[in-house]
Amino acid sequence: MRKRMPSTNALRAFETIMKRKSVKDAADEISLTPQAVRYQIKMLEELIGYELFIRNGNRLDPTLKAMELLGYITQSLDVLEEGLNALDKDSNKLYLHVSPYYANNILIPQLHEFTEQHPNIDLRISIGAENNDFDTKDIDIAIQWGYGQWSGFQAEPLMNDLKIIAATPDLLKKQPIESIKDLMAHRLISPWVRNTLWQDIFDMLDTQQEMMKEEFLYLHDNEAIYKATLSGMGVGLVSRPEAIEAVTAGDLVAPLGIDLLSQLPDHKIPKFYLIRQNNKEESPLVKHFTQWAKESSRSQK
Q1: pTM of the predicted protein model
Q2: Which CATH architecture fits 163-266?
Q3: Where in the sequence is the signal peptide annotated (predicted)?
Q4: What CATH number matches the domain at 93-161+270-298, 3.40.190.10, 3.20.20.190, 3.90.70.10, 3.40.50.2300?
């Protein structure tokens, strides 16, 4: 006869508190009140006969027993979820988390081609330049900008994001860029998301960051960088399609040429990656979207 087991609500409350380090944050994530979360923890402690948290005001500090238990509970919830997903292989739900530039310029303009093939799809798309919590169980696929640095996940490159060093004509009239030394006299605009672009440029041009006369201006996504560059705030790294269009229109100038960054080694050129969780059973819909996203990205190259 099996030992009496705790409810899934109690297990989820425990796991989420351990992850969020806050009763309030845990309650928000699992859609319960803080009082209900505390009650679930109390029931779990009474069932197993051990104190799991030391109550310190509004904070719950985990005990050693809680640390020991966490791995088992997480594994149990994962197995349960995998079993439920296996019963729902034909699910029409698809949850994507997508980098802003890719979403606005690549994915959404073409997405009707995919949704027309799945008229009953329950599609949800969150947009963000970073995804610090990809282990959130609801996300099926993320498409993010970077260098393939997502350890423990399947990360497949979809397309390069070549940049062009650009500035406004007015800015270059005030401070021309005819050499790397001239470049270092300007404020340089950089993506906020972790990257090595400017450092790789400095290395390629045989200069050092210490020669910069101004601090970097960090901005969160490509659109903000593009607009800041257009406004004359500094010299920006603008994605190639927008940069070429602006250069052609006379709104921007590429003082070091439009092909400079294409000389970087392939592993130093940032890309948009399609990211999936390892060892997670995927529905036919997720598999089809993966194939479609690869094909649609190839058409953009």
Answers
A1: 0.68
A2: 3-Layer(aba) Sandwich (3.40)
A3: none
A4: 3.40.190.10
